[in-house]
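Researcher: Can you fold this with zinc ion in place?
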Amino acid sequence: MVNALNTRLESARTPRELFEAVEPKRAMVITAHPDDCEFMCGGTVAVLTSMGWHVDIVVATSGNKGTKDPKMTSQRLAGIREEEQREAARRLGAAEPVFLGFHDGGVPDNDELRALLVYQMRLRRPELVITWDGFRLGFNHRDHRNVGRSTYDAIYPAADDHLYLTEHKDEGLEPHRPVILLLGGQANVGDPDFHVDIQPVIRKKVRAILAHTSQIRGRTEAEMLKIQREQAEARRQAGVEAPLYRESFRRVLLRR
Ligand SMILES: [Zn+2]
């Protein structure tokens, strides 16, 4: 039987049409580190929330490495970076982020992470999931690769099969399958086929990135907007079709 929703999604000509077609409007961004969401898909999250979507952000680590300050401890850094991620989520109009508590650089591709992701999907029931592309070639952070791969494995086959993680039933959670998966991290080495126009929300994206004060080394809003403008101009000169301000993904439609 052809599902009517799948047909509508397949015939959507633009990301915006696709985002309009999906009901209920619930998305989940699954990343490795605080700030991944804002760099990879902050503009897309801002577009979604402006269209009335509820967006959850699930972060595998609390970013407890990644500092040049010799006096900083891992525990203190984690607290700072969680707070920065909360502020970034507020700036994007997303919900309070969820932290899974793995160590920075130590995100596993194992049953523990998959079970936590299945739990979050059954609990929050996103129709759209955005994560790192864990299969793309080229240099890639191990945590990003493992989060990406674990997310696909959580979506299929685990989250939608009631015989996986049967203990979730005791909490009243039902199987769930999202309808769209967007794989990010495509900027230079991927093969993207889905380009979200983020020009209307570019300032919001930049401000959300700037919430990660410990990571941005004093860069200002004006400097970051200039970088975005230069990237757009380079695309225009290279003859790239609109949108010039973009976030790029590989799109996977998941049949129900
Ligand atoms: Zn990262």
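Model: Folded with zinc ion in place. The radius of gyration is 18 Å.
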